[in-house]
Design goal:
Structural class: mainly alpha
Number of strands: 0
Order of helices and strands: HHHHHHH
Strand content: under 5%
Distance between the termini: 46 Å
Radius of gyration: 15 Å
Helix content: over 70%
Number of helices: 7
């Protein structure tokens, strides 16, 4: 596959990922009285979609999921990913940490939550993220 074909593939994968995560966020927003279990289920699907991972990922740790996502993404083609990458990492921040921070920001934005920097900064697992969202809703 040539570089143009790879770019097109990556664009399609990213688009599908964004669509699935938006659908999961919408399900959470539209549920009048979501339970913690409901939020966890859809938030986990949201995170897996954002990170372009399959449902069979067993870990709950967000940095581990970010690491798995990076490994999967890099298998596509590091040059293609690099050419599409528009983020500039902070000094001494790992890629996993950057992905985690961006994910937490996206959750707050997509679920229309009032940001609470102190509480969200303590989140390290999808379970803790679901608890944060549950309390915020």
């Amino acid at each position: 596959m040539d570089i143009a074909g790879r770019k097109e593939l990556v664009a399609k994968l990213l688009s599908a990922s964004q669509k699935r995560s938006a659908q999961e966020a919408e399900k959470i927003r539209q549920e009048p009285h979501p339970s913690l279990k409901f939020i966890y289920e859809h938030l986990r699907n949201y995170v897996l979609s954002k990170f372009m991972l399959t449902p069979d990922c067993e870990t709950d740790d967000i940095k581990d999921l970010a690491s798995l996502s990076l490994a999967r993404t890099m298998k596509l083609d590091p040059d293609v990913i690099h050419s599409l990458d528009q983020a500039t990492p902070c000094d001494h921040a790992t890629s996993e940490s950057a992905k985690k921070v961006l994910l937490l920001y996206a959750v707050q934005k997509d679920l229309e939550l009032k940001p609470d920097a102190e509480k969200i900064s303590k989140v390290s697992t999808v379970t803790e993220l679901a608890e944060y969202v549950y309390a915020a809703l």
